[in-house]
Write a structure and sequence with these properties.
The complex is a heterodimer. By secondary structure, chain A is of the alpha/beta class. Chain A is built from 17 helices and 6 strands. Chain A has a 4-stranded mixed sheet, with helices on both faces. A two-stranded antiparallel ribbon of chain A has the order 5-6. Classes of the chains: A alpha/beta, B alpha/beta.
């Protein structure tokens, strides 16, 4: 144990370099700064916005429209009295994000309940989504006005009838059924919220796998490059302890690094997300998910944690073998690529498709990748597919055991010194 | 004199290439046994097998009468190996490197301290031990590594080309350090293609070429047998 501790300390010290600490600190600061800037931009976008209005009608109807816009926190620059081109030029030169033209006869058409047109000219000074938000709000104001006007008309023409029922005679009540539970709500909302939640798992997994694996590969490759491996292999410490110490140190430092990056990333996303998020919809979605039992209890979190832990172990064991294949630190950088692809394939498939509905050969291929299983574990917990969960966990454990046995075999035999992945050139064995 | 290391019919193949074609020799207690031969003769392979780094394809190799293949952990406790192209961790300070290596051998903090102090004395690097290994010259690094190899007073020190790439003064220092430790009880198995160095250092010599031992004996015995003035001439005569 004393020897293992001695080696573990050295491994951790080697990995926690000044460069790593500076890079982590820089990332946290940078992401936070970007998050703060984004937050300010979002606040600006959802705050009071300036639009220009050319009211060529001047009727009661057009005034009601403008009043509606004012109450929707728009600062209105009145361009009345100008021609359309002149109003466009003037609005474009100013701060307005949009010019709204209410043509003559707008009010009369409304009174007669004929279709009335207005024109909007959005000035796209940038192509960000936030930049186009002005027009979205104007459209929602118009939609609200349409609703009020048609309701007023129906009430006048058909007294005693409910305008809302008249316009939408068929009403649907939506229910979602998950396993043995049923609750009223939208399936789309549930799917959206679940996908938002499960997005975090692949990001965390990718971060940890990539950081930890890179560290293990580099740790082995650096021993080779610095010509310290041969000496280390002849000191009185078990070869399995060498593997464990390297994997443990890399896993630990990789986990901490990934945690710091996730914290930084949260600062970045938090800056953008909070203000725009529809808090109400989220609250009702959460209540719906609770009713349907789509929440994790302690066992659920334990299973998810175990799945992520096994995936990390598999990645570390693979990285250990890849590290042996690398001749030096530079080639170690390329060795991470196969691992990255193995994590990215299930990640992208889970983004765009449902693994369950894939064709059988593709499904087998995806399930053969050990890193696919943590992606599936949360939906399997929700759906109660415990057999699938157990099979996934068992498969990852089996892959890990096979890889560790193979890694131990490499470290205990000549392979540790003779196994190399060479591209093109052949080298004679040692004299 | 009892044997520390006994090698009988040792073979090692890499695929179709036979690096060792069945060699026999022994290292006796308190002696320096040197394998000499040209590049590719099989010296490093032999040393790596003796150091438990490689496994033999056939033959027997015993350390203190124990089978080296069956009990590598026992062997690693009592030997030390200095590879030809060995390096030390560049980001570590010299003293930290010695402490790290002593951590594998010392039974307690006191013994580790004793090893480190001994190694520091061997290196003669003084305050430079407080600086990073990456800043050392080749000679300084080699002395540090040799000190690491000898600090535990191993039963057998396996030294592959111990003075390789060193200037005359550093090479002389290294040879003197080796001789001193042999007097204190450590046996040495070393390899070199520098025949003059071998003549100065070794008690007995094994001439090796193409994976076979051509002849074994003390330098004087070999010179007399081959009617040669030095080991270089002995080696040329053996090849004929």
């Amino acid at each position: 144990m004393k020897r293992f501790k001695n080696l573990l300390q050295k491994e951790v010290k080697e990995l926690v370099t000044k460069q790593l600490v500076i890079s982590l600190a820089f990332t946290v600061l940078l992401f936070n700064a970007i998050g703060q800037i984004s937050k300010k931009e979002v606040q600006k976008a959802v705050g009071i916005q300036t639009i220009s209005v050319l009211d060529q009608d001047g009727s009661e109807g057009s005034r009601a429209l403008l009043k509606g816009l004012e109450s929707a926190r728009f600062k209105i620059v009145d361009q009345t009295g100008k021609g359309k081109d002149e109003a466009l030029a003037s609005a474009k030169a100013g701060e307005s994000k949009l010019l709204l033209v209410v043509p003559a006869g707008f009010g009369d058409s409304l009174a007669e309940l004929k279709p009335s047109e207005i024109e909007t000219y959005s000035f796209m000074r940038s192509f960000s989504l936030i930049g186009a938000r002005g027009q979205v709000v104007v459209q929602s104001v118009i939609s609200a006005l349409n609703e009020t006007l048609s309701n007023n008309f129906l009430a006048a023409k058909l007294p005693g009838a409910d305008p809302v029922s008249l316009k939408r005679p068929i009403k649907s009540r939506d229910f979602v059924v998950v396993r043995d539970r049923t609750a009223e709500g939208s399936a789309g909302l549930i799917a959206g919220m679940l996908s938002q939640q499960s997005m975090l798992i692949p990001i965390v997994l990718m971060m940890i796998v990539i950081y930890s694996s890179q560290m293990v590969i580099s740790a082995v490759a650096m021993e080779k490059q610095n010509k310290t491996l041969e000496t280390l292999l002849t000191v009185p410490i078990k070869r399995t302890s060498i593997i464990t110490a390297k994997m443990f140190a890399a896993g630990l430092v990789g986990l901490i690094s990934a945690g710091v990056y996730m914290f930084a990333f949260k600062g970045f996303i938090g800056g953008m997300g909070e203000e725009v998020a529809a808090a109400g919809a989220r609250a009702s979605g959460t209540a719906l998910m609770q009713k349907l039992g789509l929440t994790f209890d302690t066992t659920g979190y334990l299973i998810l944690g175990l799945s992520l832990f096994l995936a990390i172990l598999v990645a570390l064991a693979m990285a250990m073998i890849l590290g042996v294949l690398a001749e030096d630190f530079r080639s170690a950088q390329n060795m991470i690529m196969p691992l990255m692809f193995m994590v990215m394939i299930p990640y992208f498939i889970s983004l765009f498709a449902d693994i369950d509905t894939l064709s059988l050969p593709v499904k087998i291929l995806v399930l053969a990748i050990p890193f696919s299983h943590p992606f599936l574990v949360s939906q399997n917990i929700y759906l109660g597919h415990y057999g699938m969960i157990a099979a996934g966990l068992g498969y990852m454990l089996l892959v890990f055991i096979v890889l560790v046995i193979y890694a131990a075999r490499i470290f205990s035999t000549d392979k540790i010194l003779t196994m190399k992945l060479r591209f093109g050139k052949k080298k004679a064995p040692a004299a | 004199m009892s044997n520390v290391l006994t090698v009988r019919g040792l073979k090692k193949s890499y695929g179709a290439h036979a690096a060792l074609a069945g060699i026999d020799f022994e290292v006796r207690a308190g002696e320096v046994f040197a394998l000499i031969g040209p590049n590719g003769a099989g010296k490093t392979t032999t040393l790596r097998i003796a150091a438990t780094l490689l496994t033999s394809t056939a033959g027997e190799i015993t350390f203190l009468d124990r089978d080296l293949r069956k009990e590598p952990d026992f062997v690693r406790e009592k030997i030390s190996y200095l590879p030809e192209e060995a390096g030390a961790y560049k980001d570590m300070k010299g003293m930290d490197y010695l402490r790290f290596m002593a951590g594998f051998y010392g039974r307690d903090a006191g013994e580790e301290k004793e090893f480190v102090e001994r190694a520091a004395a061997i290196t003669e690097l003084g305050n430079r031990l407080k600086t990073k290994v990456g800043t050392y010259s080749k000679g300084m690094t080699r002395k540090l590594l040799l000190a690491r190899a000898l600090m535990t007073r191993p039963v057998l020190a396996i030294l592959d080309e111990p003075t390789s790439g060193l200037d005359v003064l550093n090479a002389l220092d290294v040879r003197e350090i080796i001789r001193r430790y042999v007097k204190e009880g450590t046996s040495v198995l070393l390899s070199s293609h520098n025949m003059l160095e071998i003549e100065f250092l070794s008690d007995r010599v094994g001439l090796i070429d193409k994976g076979r031992i051509l002849d074994t004996g003390t330098p004087d015995e070999l010179k007399a047998k081959h009617a040669a003035k030095n080991l270089e001439e002995v080696f040329r005569s053996s090849l004929r």
